[in-house]
Amino acid sequence: MGSILKSILRRLQLNIFLVVNVVYLCIPIYRFRSDVDTFDLLWKVLMDNLIYLGFADGASRHAQNLASAAWVIYYPSDQLLVSRGICIIRASKNVVEYIVVINLLSEAISLGVDSLVVYLDSQLVVSQINNIYCVRDPYLYCNFMRVCLLQRSFIYITFIHIPRSKNSFADSIANRALDLHINHSSH
C-alpha cells in the first residue's frame, strides 16, 4: 500500500498541500521544501515522532509602556527543551506576538529543530501567518515576512490557535519577565 500511495503522490505532484488524518487528528502539512520527496519527509516526521511543540505568548503593561515575549519548546517526548522570556519597550500586542514567534522560530532553528507545531493564543497572528487574513499594517507586514522567511528552514511547520488557558506556561513566563523588569527598574 505504501508504494501505491507513493506513486500516486508522485504522479499528482502534491508538493504544496497535503493533509493527513491520524486517529481523528487532522495535521495540515503545507510547507515542504520542494527539492526533496514529500512522501519521504512526511513518513519521517510521522513515523520517527520528530514533531517538536512550541508555545508562544506576549504580555503588556500599558501603564508602564512595557511588553514582554515568552516562548517554550518541548521535545517530541513532551520534555521541556527550552523556555525564554524577554522584555520589549513600547510595542503593541500584535507586534509582541510577532516578535515572540520570530524568537521562537529562531531559537528552534538554532537548536536543530526541523519539525514544529507552534501554539499561540493570538487568533489574529495565527490567521495572518496561515494566510487566512491579510496583513495590512506595514510594520506587522515586515514581521510577517520575517516569519515567512524563517518558516523556510523547517521541513514541517504549522501554527495553531489555542485558548489562553492552554498557554499558561508561556503566559506565566511573559508576566514574570515583566514583573522582574518592573521590580528591577524601580530599585
Give an overview of the whole structure.
- This protein is an alpha/beta fold and 187 residues long.
- The chain has 2 domains: 1-48, no CATH class; 49-186, Nucleotidyltransferase, domain 5, CATH 3.30.420.10.
- Helices cover 42% and strands 27% of the residues.
- The longest helix is centred in the last third of the chain and has 19 residues, at 168-186.
- The radius of gyration is 18 Å and the shape is globular.
Identify the notable features of this structure and list them briefly.
single chain, 187 residues, alpha/beta, Nucleotidyltransferase, domain 5, five-stranded mixed β-sheet, two-stranded antiparallel sheet, 6 helices, 27% strand, globular, disordered N terminus
How many DSSP H or I helices?
Answer: 6
CATH class of the largest domain: Alpha Beta
State the low-pLDDT regions, or none. 1-30
Report the principal-axis shape: globular
CATH architecture classification name of the largest domain: 2-Layer Sandwich
* CATH topological fold name of the largest domain: Nucleotidyltransferase, domain 5
Gyration radius from CA atoms, angstroms: 18 Å
What's the average pLDDT? Answer: 78
Output the helix-strand order: HEEHEEEHEHHEH
Q: Count structural domains.
A: 2
Amino- and carboxy-terminal Cα gap:
67 Å
CATH superfamily of the largest domain, called what? Ribonuclease H-like superfamily/Ribonuclease H
